[in-house]
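User: hey, got a sec? need AMP-dependent synthetase/ligase folded
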Amino acid sequence: MGQISNLRIDPRSGFCSSNSTFYSKRQPFSLPSNPCLDITTFISSYPHQGKIAFIDATTGRQLSFSQLWKAVDSVATCLSELGIRKGHVVLIIAPNSLYFPIVCLSVMSLGAIITTSNPLNTAREIALQMADSNPALVFTTSLLVPKLAESTLPIVLLDEQEIIKTSTSEARIVATVDQMMKKEPTGSRVRDRVYQDDTASLLYSSGTTGPSKGVASSHRNLMALLQTFSIAYNFNPDEGEQIHICTVPMFHIYGFGAYAIGKLTVGSTVVILSKFSMDEMLSAVEKYRVTFLPLVPPILLAMVKGADQIRRKYDLSSLQSVLCGGAPLSKEVIHGFLEKFPKVHIRQGYALTETTGSGASMYSPEEGRKYGTVGLLSPNLEAKIVDPDTGVALVVNQTGELWVRGPSIMKGYLNNPEATASTINSEGWLKTGDLCYIDEDGFVFVVDRLKELIKYKGYQVPPAELEALLLSHPDISDAAVIPYPDEEVGQYPMAYVIRKAGSNISDTAIIDFVAPYKRIRKVAFITSIPKNPSGKILRRHLIELATSKI
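Assistant: Yep! Here you go:
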């Protein structure tokens, strides 16, 4: 940070005119000086006052911090005996559970690499990821074993339910996690030297604009993320004991970084939902007196639209904050939420798998009242706003592609040097692909995905802007806007719309509702909008649907 002290940085915006760089206004952190350190050891050595680490929302089973670390040690011992070594990849395909963090921490403690997969993926999608990542072992559940029918890898079961028995699947099951957790840890297991710069996790990017890619993050990348969480926690010491509920999937950077491992450094309790259900989530908030609720925009929107019934049915008085990430919230949705739940603060955030969960966030209720922003740059992060056409770095309040640089930036994409080189330049700047601007107070505003802008007669129309407008209509439950090809104008906006129950709103009424040059020219009604686990609309799926009929 010594180089920064010599720069003339505007204290209000964080912008330095001499190098066109924005610097984080957050308190900076330092990383351990010892190059030989794994993320699991780093977390376990962190001082905190926490007692209960995880609670299973369905069964009520609890895992104290001491039980967690004993389980991690036992499972790591078993993995070592199975031949898992530094650099080996271990795959976990499972819904959220108490076992998820145990497996991840055990694998990474050995210097092995944890890779995750969506349990809803098809057998083919899982096979493609396995071909790319080349795992040595799979953790999964009984119900998901059939998806691995074509694989010969050894399997560790995360449950003990009956599986669909075949000679091959039975032979490949080498243990259950419960059996591993009963193993007495031994100091004689093989301990490879693990460096901070070694790969720790291999999470697959959301694939909103193309096939998903394996994002390799180092132990150091994850340490940087956890240091960011610690600074955020210490920013609000008067909030008392924090109880978080993990509603987001742990196979995704949001759930993995923030909840499977992230809250362990500050001693918070995490209540785990195995699968999302609005009723189960709200019941768990009431039962466990949850204070922090992470959501993706579609769920927050559903809470706004069902607020009256929710308040009658559930006691949400413990709730202090809602944390929303994955996609920007419109002013209308924020207003609607605060009107229905006036004692709950909204905090937004912005991150990518490629930035290992860092990006921008809000730390306080005051920051949360600034509409349209995703917060201030994360600690130790630098940013540039770059004109996508000219490559020129822009200044305060000018919109361009967001570039970021810092200790949480990924090592690169697995087996894909071309994609890595086109995403991270020689100076270490990661090109996010998001159109943003940073205002005079240093707050980041996300306008849209660069690749998703609709080019209408030379105008650039952000789909997110039209979606926010459509969602403000009382007859619309959800909406997605895509570019539709046209010979005369290039592209025009097309909307996929979900009507509210009982509504018969017409396509012409929707078209008339939207402003002139950004006007939607085509509307189709649909029963669900395809989205990834973090709530981002999978526009390419809708584009394929729309253009298949041309």
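Quick note: The first helix runs from residue 2 to 5. Let me know if you need anything else on AMP-dependent synthetase/ligase.
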